[in-house]
Amino acid sequence: MRENSDGGYAMVMRKGYLRCSLAIVTIAAAVWLGLGAWGDDPPDDRRGHGAALGVFLGSDSRGPVHLERFESWLKSSVTVGRTYLPGETWESIEGAEFVLGPWTRWRAAEPDRVLALNVPMIAPNESGMPDAEVAQRLAEGARGDHDHHFGELGRKLVSAGAGDTIIVLGWEMNGTTYSSRCAPNPEAWKQYWRRIVAAMRAAPGQRFRFDFAPSRGLDAIPWTECYPGDDVVDIIGMDSYDQGPGQDFSDYVNQPYGLQAHADFAAQHGKAISFPEWGLFRHGDRPDYVRRMLDWIDSHNVLYHSISDYCPHGIWQCSSNPRSAEVFRERLHRRPFPVPTPSSPSVHEASASIDRPTSNPPASATAADPSAAASEGLPSLSSSASANAATSPGATTAPTPADTSSEIPGTPQAMRERPVASASSAVNGNPSQREGSTTTSAATYQGLASATSPAK
């Protein structure tokens, strides 16, 4: 480069430096957006950036094993590990090793992974506890009687390298299934939530995100009456399955306390949304529901979503839903998923072969009769899906995993049974609201722990 008499050489060098700096800043911004990274506040609109993908395949060590096979089938990586703490005892809520051990190791194996962990608020959580006792337990929690259990859980997660876990606390609180429900004492429930968040945020090094996740629709109480406050909620989630009230996806959107109300409420509070649980149910293999649910996720400010992949809800472990499986795989295969990171430390420290198992639906899943699937308005799948896939999901024959989809290890009992709900218990769009449930015992979980957890 030649320097002229008026210092043009220096000017050209400065301009070149500025262009290079601008290019670096532009590339860095693009990477930041692609990963979904947030500062102290969520962006106004995540549409077009994509939601992080999770899938529930089992709570214990078999979950991560199946997850690797699911990723092979989908031809995409899953960045959100979905699991549940058992709620039979307080010791389990403090962090059952047979759940936390394998999943925190999965989390630590790749830097772009995160856990989304469902945590009960009361033990036992699935015992059919009467309202009066629930109200008393919530009052105890609001006084701080149970703070130490959640402090212990927070410390365990941080020490295992999972201090950024998304905590789905007291999920489906607007219903009647779980002891961790809100309706018997809403004010105590909200105060108890606040104490749990404070106890877990006290763990040094934590960056937990707390997900307030009711079930869709109106149930025992409007879920808005359980909201504990913006300072103790990071994400506003919703569990939503393909069942009433309503017959189609438009009904799910427009019903009171439905999908549109959920999105509007989150926007009013400056929060991203999530769908920790969603899946097929009353209408059997209905690909239009899967397609429209994914459309809804793509067009809204969704941080992450997770399909419940066991019969009758799933699309990989449940061979009775081949058309829905094809839609799911067509839409999501080879798609890059961001990491759900909606917070910074300053916020929370202060406060090729297709490996698809086949299995029969459980006896309790016969309520979701595939013959009842809606046939109207189901668009045909594009030929490009078959061209991109090595084989059709519905036609795949692959080894069945050691456990079947009827008994996913560590699954909350309410999620495993899914019998036909009564008119009063099916009003919220979530199949976990049902009558006549029996809970698994703590001994059952301990048996699973010894049978499936790696040697310590």
Question: In the CATH classification, which architecture of the largest domain applies?
Answer: Alpha-Beta Barrel
What's the CATH H-level homologous superfamily of the largest domain?
Glycosidases
- DSSP, total strands: 9
Top-tier CATH class of the largest domain:
Alpha Beta
Shape: globular
Low-confidence stretches: 1-48, 342-410, 413-456
N-to-C series of helices and strands: HEHEHHEHHEHEEEHHEHEHHHHH
| Helix content estimate | 25-40%
Structural class: alpha/beta
Indicate the proportion of strand residues: 5-15%
- Please give the order of strands in the largest beta sheet: 1-2-3-4-5-6-8-9
- As a whole number of angstroms, the C-alpha radius of gyration is 23 Å
State the end-to-end CA separation: 65 Å
Structure description:
This protein is of the alpha/beta class and 456 residues long. It folds into two domains: 10-39; 42-374 and 394-452, Glycosidases (TIM Barrel, Alpha-Beta Barrel). It is 36% helix and 10% strand. It has helices at residues 8-34, 62-74, 90-93, 97-109, 131-143, 147-159, 186-201, 249-254, 259-268, 287-298, 322-332, 345-348, 383-388, 413-417, 442-452; strands at 52-56, 80-84, 114-119, 166-169, 209-212, 235-237, 240-241, 272-279, 302-308. It has an eight-stranded parallel beta barrel with strand order 1-2-3-4-5-6-8-9, surrounded by four helices. α2 (62-74) links the parallel β1 (52-56) and β2. α5 (131-143) packs across α7 (186-201) and α10 (287-298) packs parallel to α11 (322-332).
